[in-house]
Specification:
alpha/beta; Rossmann fold; GMP Synthetase, Chain A, domain 3; 13-stranded mixed beta sheet; 5-stranded parallel beta sheet; 15 helices; 27 strands; 30% helix; disordered C terminus
Length: 513
């Protein structure tokens, strides 16, 4: 299990750094274990039982990492809760999970105090950085002073270790439960993926531009610490902060979303000196990475962007591409040895082009409900909602989300194809293509474009640029130039942007399904 793997490293390397924070506060493996024990003692003293849910609601803090391990050590179920969610979603997650305890930080608690204090299931609330009681919350130190010693209980591998909630951009959050056995398998898969490009003897640190409240970053942090590789935490992931990290440390593993890598590359191109990342495994995930971003990143930093594909229900990475600079089309990559896939065409038969289905031993045990776990995907096959094409060598090409597929007079149009062509223009930094209802043609294509700083383009110029690159019916009818394309949950959501566009036009928000 992740906690047992961690304690083995503590025994072998007690004084080695485990977590390095950007404000120069760092802790060794032994000190992190001591913090884990203190949190565990405090929770057990307050009545925590194996199986109890604990809300973890914090920015990147050393205490957050320790709290994950404390839950694993005590048999509690950790429920990572994104601090950027609104009060209604926080309330829903606390109520739905039936959590008894809350561990957060001052920023997150203050932003969502109404939801946290109003939660009837919570019996204890402790806040990192709080010095005096506020509302129904208690200072963090009061939790650490509650107990003296802790002995981990014997725990079944079938017990629920975590509930990962997904909220997307619409609808109610829903929680996917994962057993302790599944979490252990997930960490093994992540470690195996790391081994593809990082020397086994490397003790260089891991850094993610995605907060460690995200399942991907949680899993990669567990894997890194179990391999005697410290993790680096920063309060923010703005390009200036990230560049400071890259100039200070030689990393083993470096992760982020395509948007993160794009912003970093744009910022670095204005500098005289940039760090060389040719020896670092740089991994993009969370969304399809445009090839232009991978190429620009390579030109700027010398690093080869890899692609990591997985969804919350799948547990972790299931498909991997080792080098996007060698791809000729938007690529997901190849299934990992532990992953089985099938592609279901529009008529429901298996094919080479269609919706991707994935089967993996790391998949969720089911949806968390008031009545326990509701099994889902009982045949093992998870519909991803992603459209793919399988090449002759087995590599999966990303065609886009099934719900994002546009139909123009009956012709299928993949937004990703248009975006890729737009992004090849040297003056364009970002682009997103979406559709709105159109009485005559079914849907009308709109492109939202963010140019590089100091660059100016016209709609006519973009349409002329695309004229000999894509079919005429795929050329956007409207081109919008914006300062910044909106990002939701570290992703560019076409559906969200389309809804906001319709609202801005005072039109009924009803997108085609």
């Amino acid at each position: 299990m992740p906690f047992r793997s961690f304690t083995k490293v503590v025994s072998a390397h007690p004084d080695s750094p485990a977590i390095i924070h950007h404000n120069n506060r760092s802790v060794s493996y032994q000190k992190l274990l001591s913090l884990i024990d203190a949190i565990s003692c405090g929770l057990v003293t307050k009545g925590l039982r194996s199986g109890d849910r604990v809300i973890l609601h914090s920015k990147n803090k050393i205490e957050l990492i320790a709290s994950y391990y404390a839950c694993l050590a005590t048999g509690a179920t950790f429920v990572p809760t994104n601090p950027h969610l609104p009060n209604k979603d926080i309330s829903k997650i606390i109520s739905d999970s039936g959590a008894r305890f809350y561990l957060g930080d001052t920023t997150s608690y203050t932003a969502n105090q109404k939801a946290v204090d109003g939660a009837s299931t919570l019996e204890g609330r402790w806040v990192i950085g709080m010095n005096t009681p506020e509302g129904k919350a208690q200072p963090w130190q009061s939790l650490l002073q509650l107990g003296n010693s802790f002995s981990p209980p014997s725990l079944s591998p079938d017990m629920v270790a975590s509930i990962f909630y997904t909220s997307g951009t619409t609808g109610q959050p829903k929680g996917f439960a994962f057993s302790r056995r599944a979490i252990n398998t997930i960490i093994d898969v992540v470690r195996s993926t790391m081994a593809l490009s990082v020397r086994a003897t490397s003790t260089a640190p891991f850094y993610s531009m995605v907060d460690v409240i995200s399942p991907w970053s949680i899993q990669t942090s567990f894997a890194s610490l179990s391999l005697h590789r410290p993790i680096i935490l920063t309060d923010t992931h703005d390009p200036h902060t990230v560049l400071k990290v890259l100039n200070t440390y030689q990393l083993s593993w470096f992760t982020g979303t395509p948007s993160n890598f794009n912003d970093l590359t744009v910022a670095a191109q204005a500098l005289d000196h940039v760090p060389v990342l040719s020896a670092t495994a740089c991994v993009s995930g969370g969304d399809t990475c445009p090839l232009e971003i991978a190429q620009r990143f390579h030109t700027t930093f010398g690093g080869h962007l890899q692609n990591s594909y997985g969804q919350t229900e799948q547990g972790c990475i299931t498909i991997h591409h080792p080098d996007l600079t060698k791809a000729s089309t938007p690529a997901l990559g190849w299934p990992l040895p532990t992953t089985a896939i099938k592609i279901v065409a529009e008529g429901g038969e298996d094919g080479e082009v269609g919706e991707l289905f994935v089967r993996s031993p790391t998949k969720t045990a089911g949806l968390w409900t008031d009545n326990g776990i509701e099994p889902v995907y009982e045949d093992g096959w998870i519909p991803t909602g992603d459209l793919v094409s399988r090449h002759a060598d087995g590599c999966l090409e990303a065609l886009g989300r099934q719900k994002d597929l546009i139909k123009i007079a009956g012709y299928p149009v993949y937004p990703l194809e248009i975006e890729q062509e737009i992004l090849r223009h040297p003056d364009i930094a970002r682009a997103v293509v979406f559709a709105i209802p159109d009485i005559a043609k079914g849907e009308s294509i709109i492109a939202m474009i963010e140019t590089h700083r100091g660059k100016t383009l016209s709609s006519t110029a973009i349409k002329e640029y695309l004229a000999d690159k894509i079919a005429h019916y795929k050329i956007p009818e409207q081109i919008m130039f914006v300062d910044t394309i909106p990002i939701v949950n570290n992703k560019i959501s076409r559906r969200h942007i389309a809804r906001e566009y319709l609202r801005s036009c005072d039109k009924e928000v009803r997108l085609l399904e």
